[in-house]
Amino acid sequence: MYANLTMIFKFYCVRTGDSIFAAMSVLLFTVIVLVGAFLAGFVGSLTGLGGGVIIIPLLTLGLGVDIHYAIGASIISVIATSSGSAAAYVKEGITNIRIGMFLEVATTISAIIGAIVTVYINPGYIAVIFGLILLFSAAMMVRKKIDRSDNDTSGKLAVFFKLNGTYPTAHGAKDYAVHNVVGGFVMMFVAGIISGLLGIGSGALKVIAMDNIMRIPFKVSTTTSNFMMGVTAAASAVVYFHRGQIDPGIAMPVAVGVLLGATIGSKILVRTQTDKLKVVFAIVVTFLAIQMIYNGLSGKL
Amino acid sequence: MSKEIRNFFADKDIQVILGTLLRVGVITSMSVVLVGGLIYLFSNHANAVDYVKFDSGKSGFSSISAIFEGLKALDGAAIIQFGTLLLIFTPIARVVFSIFSFLIERDYLYVLIGLIVLSIILYSLSDKLVG
Question: What CA–CA distance (Å, rounded) separates B124 from B129?
Answer without folding.
Answer: 6
